[in-house]
């Protein structure tokens, strides 16, 4: 994916995959409409063509929302089939209830949608199984040479140890440079190469596409002349920070140095709608979500009240101080998912199987229903829909001492959902906070309307599959 929609660069294999899936979806719709045209009632060709385009567009949008276009999706064939079926059910609902009601002139018999969806499930599932079985991504993998075999280079080994992490590139090897820490790499190929004499020749003979500068010491250690010659021959030379950011969708906080932040592209909030328009967009989206979810909110409030609110007199809502933009505190509003005495002993991290959580609380936390009252924080301008999740002041004070650049996440308005929520599972320790910060900084650097839209669409996956809590 590119930076607007995710991370990494679109490879030829990725483009081939998307084009192939688009063609199969168009074919599914056209085949279904052909059946109805010839065996039931005539359908004008322009209507059949429009339906095919609309069907393919909506299905691909729904596929994005359930994570089917996540480059690092780890699912069995059965898991992929389940997601494909959910995608087609979701798209059928949107088409029948929304699109065809708004544009009734292009609507075809409801049985058309059932037939088109059935054909699409068979074709898309088979296509994905074929694509995965034959590992088509091999045809466009970049050949990468890592210049360095010490502590910094070992981060690549730790961060990208799975096959799915390296789907877009192949590491030819790591080259040791003077000053590198010994024995930092565990399971990687370390090349015996004199970088000051043999680097350029090795790069050309082994068809290297990209070199990553990852040595521990740079001053007077880099083979500048060889790097320059490689650059002029079209070899991509990148910093380890940029390589990790490109391939993982996160910024390696432990490698950041101030000049990289200052001189790198991104972190420019002026290009974003950080004005009244930003608030208006969030306000309108908040009204739309409230109109859709108010029945769920009413039912949730009643369940909380009857579970323990009536007996204890505790509120159905939970208010808590959080840190917002520019470090300003505000009160976040949530449905209460824990017992009323949950923090009698003071503030503490919530854990995955926290015994303070009520029965209703476990359900509403899993599917993010407890977050819905935060729409009122959006209306008040304290939060947006997308941004780093706001943290408690007690924890922020600790985290700012322990984690470099943690305070930078307060340079943007906090959100109901964010890049870190999509990319990192539930976490309740300072180590988890560090990992989430890496994704938050990536979001802050690359934030745009398109990235926000992708995050909002992908949040559907979190809700449907109960991820991230």
UniProtKB/TrEMBL annotation:
Q: Which residues cross the membrane?
A: 12-37, 49-69, 81-104, 110-131, 281-306
Please provide the record's keywords in A-Z order: Membrane, Transferase, Transmembrane, Transmembrane helix
Name the Pfam families for this protein. Bac_transf (PF02397)
Q: How does it sit in the membrane?
A: Multi-pass membrane protein
Identify the residues that the record assigns to the Bacterial sugar transferase domain, covering every copy.
282-464
Protein localization = Membrane
* Any one GO cellular component localisation term in the record: membrane
Reading the lineage from the top rank, the first entry is Bacteria
Question: From the Swiss-Prot or TrEMBL record, what is one GO molecular function term?
Answer: phosphotransferase activity, for other substituted phosphate groups
Q: Does the keyword DNA repair apply?
A: no
> PANTHER family in the record, alphabetically?
COLANIC BIOSYNTHESIS UDP-GLUCOSE LIPID CARRIER TRANSFERASE, UNDECAPRENYL-PHOSPHATE N-ACETYLGALACTOSAMINYL 1-PHOSPHATE TRANSFERASE-RELATED
Family per record: Belongs to the bacterial sugar transferase family.
NCBIfam families annotated for this entry? EPS_sugtrans (TIGR03025), EpsB_2 (TIGR03013)
- Provide the protein name: Sugar transferase, PEP-CTERM system associated/exopolysaccharide biosynthesis polyprenyl glycosylphosphotransferase
Q: What organism is this sequence from?
A: Alkalimonas amylolytica
Taxonomy of the source species: Bacteria, Pseudomonadati, Pseudomonadota, Gammaproteobacteria, Alkalimonas
